[in-house]
Every structure is written in C-alpha cells, then in structure tokens.
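Re: the request from the purification team.
They wanted to know what the chain is likely to look like in 3D before they choose a buffer screen. I agreed to run a prediction and write the result into the notebook, where they can find it.
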Amino acid sequence: MNRIIKKGILYFLSLFFVLLLSLLSSGNYVYALGYNENLTIEEKEYYNVEELDISEENVSLDSVIITLTKEETIKFLNYTSDDFSEIGCLSIEDLTMHTVDDVENSYNENSAVTNKMIDYENFRRILKLEISDKSINGVINAIRILMNKDNVLSVVPNYKIHLTALPNDVHYENNDMWGLNGTYGISADNAWDISVGCSEVNVAVIDSGIEYNHPDLKNRINDTNIHRDFTVSATTPIEAVDLTDSDGHGTHVAGIIAGEGNNNSGIVGVAWDVRLVSLKVFENNKGEVSHLCSAINYAADQEIPIINFSGGMYGYEYRLYSALRGYNGLFVCAVGNDSKDVDYDNHYPSHFSYDYDFSNRVISVGSINKKGNRSNFSNYSSSGNRVDIYAPGEDILSTVPYHLCPTGCRGFFHSWSSNHKARGYHYNSGTSMASPFVAGAAAVLLSANNILSAENLKKAIINGADTITIKIPNPTVVEKLIKKFFR
C-alpha cells in the first residue's frame, strides 16, 4: 500500500518519554511517584530506570530532582549536601523555597491559611540535588540510590524543556509554504515543539550541489571539507565556503530539508538545525550512475545517516544495487515525474524500496498537491508496493542560487521549471521536492533520538499515517496512506 506525509506530531517522538512499569523490585527497577487516595500512606511504584530517556540532549546531567514524602515534608528541615552524601551530592536547591514558609506557618495552630494558590494538604517539598558524577551513568546511579531512601517519594532526571518553536521566516508567516503548514502539509510546527533538528545530524544531498552563499543555507551547511564534487573528483575535499550550484536543483532541495529557521527572512526547512553535506553528481542537469554509486559509498564511509536523492532512471543497475546494499543509513529518493506505473516501468533507485533485503532502509516518495491529490506528473504504483509514501511536491517554495535569480528575475530559469517568488526563492514542482520533506522529517526524528537505526526511522515514518485515496490513470483507484510524520 502506498503512503503520504500528512500532519500531526510524529507519534514516534513521544515513545521514549513513556515509562515501562513493572512489579519487579530488584535489578534495574526503581520507584516512581505514586499515591493511593484510599490509603493513609503514600505508595511507591516501580519502573525500569533503563527505560528513561536519559541523554545529554534531553537531560541536564549535573543533577536529579527528588520529591520528599509528606512525612518528611512537614518536618521542614534545612538540608545540606551531607544528607545525600551517598550520591556525592555537591549542593541542594529547594525548588519549593517560595512556598515552604507559608506551608510551615499553616501547620502552626495559631496561623490561618492565607495563600489560596497553595494546596497545603498535597504540598510536597521538591529538591534539586547536584551530583558529582555528571554522566548518564551518574544520573542513573543517583536515581537507584535515592529511591531506596524512606523519605524520598520520587526521583527523576532533570529533563530539559524547550520553547515552543514557531519560526519568524517571512514566507512561512505569509503562508507561502503549504508543504509545512497547509491542510495537506506535514504540520511541521507540531514537531518543532520537540525538535527542530540537531547540528550533530548530517544529511547528504546527492544532487547538483548546494549554493553556500545563500543566507538561508550557509549556516546549515557542514562547515568542514567533507563535501565532494563527483563530477570532477571523488577524492578532492571541498570546503563549505567553496560550494556552488550551477543548476539550482540541489539548492532548492537543500532548502526544503534544512533552510535556516527563525532568521526573520526567507523560508524555513523541515529540520532547520541539522547540517547539510553536498555530494554533487549532476552538472548541467546531467549525471552518471557511476557518480551516484561513488557518492553513496562515500556517505557510508563518512557515516552520514540520511541521504536524499531527488533523481533516478529507468533500468536496473547492479552497481547501484551494490552501493545501496552496502549503505546502512536511510536512503530517501524520488519516484519520478513521468506519470508512469512503476510496477511496470521500473524506476531506480526508488524501485529498491520494496522486496530487497535492504528495502527497509530505502524510502520511495511520490508527490501530492495542496488539495491532497496525486500530482499529475508523479509516478505511482498500481499495486501500492513501489511507492512508500507521498509528500508535498507541487508548488513548493524554496531556495535558489542568487546568481540564477538576479535582480529583476520574474519567471523561470534553467532547464527545469522554477517560478520566481523573490530574489533567491522560487516555487518548483516534482517528486524531487517531495523527497526532501521525508528526508527532513527523518532528520527531525534522528535529532530527537540519535540511536534510531535506518530501519527504525523508516518504520516510524511509515507506521503513523492517515489514509487517503490516490487516483491513478484509468481505471484503478488506489488507497494510499498519508504519512504523518507530525501527528
């Protein structure tokens, strides 16, 4: 069955905040906060500390947070580091310091309750304990030790919180980017509450290059010499500042994946804090499969976890099969723009997304328009097997090189159709534009949980989806799944 990207927060992003409860009481299992209103004492329940999402990305590794039992709370003691010496406590901060005095006064029989904003009966003291072992294991060990203390009701990591992220980019605020926030867009703003990408995550763009001197891209490009131009040399390093794009196609794709967000201008990408790696295989809109294979092998060698390739061909190529089979990252690719049934006109490399031993690491992407219909140009699969997912791919606004969009530009440029919006920004259509939406969503997922494998990334993207009907040429109507990265 075929699929499409739809809106909503990516269901997978919330999974690692869910705790696995258990009745076991030894090993890795520790107590969690619990209270039974039918009992006169508070209860502790068990959870597996290994199930907590404890990483430098999500947790402050310098401390843990404890809640004291009611019995301990109403003692109103002044605590020192020595009271928690078993975890190497360095300092204590009372997070309830602004209310504890009021509560203590309320327990004085001569004092009336005066603050209506305090629930005196259910008040519990909450302490932040700085720990000496500032590592993931240090946090885990502190949790295990502290929950064995009778006066501690709960102990949790000091999770990081984030501002709700809505970018101030002009074309996003003006609703020019339906692929992100339209009715049939991917509702990226919901995902941005969790992650806007991570600078440690690299996404390779195998294309015509990326224009470094674009204000929405220069800060998103990996700033090392990891980049390559395979049309010239597979071994010559290219510095980020030397990157160019004579065709504009790769720059447009790059903006969809990771155009800089919140810079008060231009557009914003799906994963606007990841890093882009330019692997150039096209020059003057022409490329060779040998260059593509070299680029894939190079990405594998550099441990780049996600590749976007918005191109393809008709006809099997063993070298391409071998290259993809040897790449353990996620390969996201377009299904082609010829309105063909790829069950019969096999399109590569998207054909590799089904029925191969590495297909669980390849995602094939078709295009829909802003009405949620298959774009007339988009290839399709009558069986539903050869197109994994559909994504916004029609009238997509993104970045183009300034030298291809000079002052006074009002229309199309180069040999691929691109409609001018503003200097450095054009609309374009194609499955080439749909594929980077998927690659960007995968990058958001990986940024939120950097231990996800390519197989898990594809599974997460495929599994949480709406169902729509995709019309294909006479006489069949195929049911597709709208892929909901952001549910």
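For the purification team: Confidence is low (pLDDT under 50) at residues 5-40, 479-485.
Please add any questions underneath this entry.
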